[in-house]
Amino acid sequence: MHRVVCPGSFDPVTMGHLDIIGRAAGLYDEVIVAVLINMTKKSLFTVDERVEMLREVTARYGNVKIDRFHGLLVDFCATNGVTAVIKGLRAVSDFEYEMQMAQMNYRLARVETLFMTTNPLYSFLSSSLIKEIARYGGDVSGLVPDTVLSRLSERLAAE
Ligand code: PNS
Fold first, then answer.
1. pTM of the entire structure?
2. What's the rounded Cα separation, in Å, for the pair 67 and 5?
3. Is 90 one of the catalytic residues?
4. Please, what's the largest Cα pairwise distance for the chain?
5. What is the pLDDT of residues 109-126, one digit of tens each?
6. pLDDT tens track for 24-49
7. Would you call 23 helix, strand, or coil by DSSP?
């Protein structure tokens, strides 16, 4: 049984994340999408909301599970019998930090990291950029799933 984890903040999930999750689901027996609970970082959506959106948009994949974690990713991996992390690489700018984390996770607990190049259609996407564009009234349709699009406009209208 090959079980991998796709970790992240997912505030909110984008089409770029979904592309990586779907491709990982085609390669491995089980994919756990793990949402980081980070009390110190201000987020637009609560962890519950992020988990709910992820559940909705990954419902079509029978082998994708959504979970949450705090603390070290390697501890989450140990608890859940996960030996590898899957990460999307958008551009060279992602590489340095991702490589540092990958090497540290390997050093800490022999957890491997596998990098998948993102679909070029979404390589310029990030959750932060989505929030910024949406906050100023820009059109982010097609860049996030429809359920996220409507929740984004609701949330930002209430701000
Ligand atoms: O979507 P993000 O915010 O870029 O995801 C970053 C994440 C959650 C993958 C990373 O911050 C992480 O793994 N955090 C858990 C804490 C941890 O294990 N830190 C040491 C990493 S070497």
1. 0.97
2. 10
3. yes
4. 45
5. 999 999 999 999 999 999
6. 999 999 999 999 999 899 999 999 99
7. helix
